[in-house]
């Protein structure tokens, strides 16, 4: 199922995996993250994982960068990039949030990245559920 939000859309890969595709040239704000978290809490089982599919180019405000990935129920995030510009957004986010120890892994969209990312997210969710 695919849901449209103000900044892009979310595809429900499974009951606890959300694929996020952000519209081209969007500047992600804290308000957009509020919309995103509200949506996730209503439509996805906990714990959950997120696939950021960077088909488009976008940026994040510094406040949004701090606000991102703040959910205790978020187990893992996979970021699929399709070029240098989208990879730079992911790399900048990782640099900005390095001290937080977030469980984020990068994948290349040109090397079956989406499929590999979903497999990795499923493994991370299973690992957490087995340890619960």
Task: Give the SSE layout.
Elements: E1 2-5, E2 8-14, E3 17-22, E4 26-28, H1 30-43, E5 48-54, E6 58-60, H2 62-67, E7 74-81, H3 84-96, E8 104-108, H4 113-131
Parallel strand pairs: 3-5, 4-6, 5-7, 7-8
Antiparallel strand pairs: 1-2, 2-3
Describe the overall structure.
- The protein has 132 residues and is α/β, with parallel strands linked by helices.
- Helices cover 39% and strands 33% of the residues.
- It has four helices and eight strands; from the N terminus they run ββββαββαβαβα.
- It has helices at 30-43, 62-67, 84-96, 113-131, and strands at 2-5, 8-14, 17-22, 26-28, 48-54, 58-60, 74-81, 104-108.
- A hairpin with a 2-residue loop joins strand 2 and strand 3.
- The longest helix has 19 residues, at 113-131.
- The chain starts with a strand and ends with a helix.
- The model has no long low-confidence stretch (mean pLDDT 90).
The CATH C-level name is Alpha Beta
Cα separation of the termini? 29 Å
Query: SSE order in H/E notation?
Result: EEEEHEEHEHEH
Count of separate DSSP helical elements = 4
Low-pLDDT segments, ≥5 res: none
Q: Percent range for helical residues?
A: 25-40%
Protein name: STAS/SEC14 domain-containing protein
Organism: Thalassotalea fonticola
Concise description?
This is STAS/SEC14 domain-containing protein. By secondary structure, the protein is α/β, with parallel strands linked by helices.
């Amino acid at each position: 199922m695919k849901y449209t939000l103000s900044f892009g859309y979310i595809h429900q890969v499974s009951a606890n995996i959300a694929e996020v595709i952000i519209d081209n040239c969007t500047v992600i704000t804290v308000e957009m993250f509020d919309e995103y978290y509200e949506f996730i809490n209503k439509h996805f089982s906990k714990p959950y994982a997120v696939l950021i599919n960077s088909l488009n180019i976008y940026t994040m405000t510094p406040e949004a960068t701090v606000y991102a990935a703040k959910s205790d129920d978020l187990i893992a995030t996979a970021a699929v990039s399709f070029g240098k510009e989208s990879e730079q957004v992911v790399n900048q986010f990782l640099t900005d949030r390095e001290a937080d120890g977030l469980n984020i892994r990068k994948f290349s969209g040109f090397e079956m990245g989406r499929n590999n990312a979903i497999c990795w997210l499923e493994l991370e969710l299973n690992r957490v559920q087995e340890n619960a």
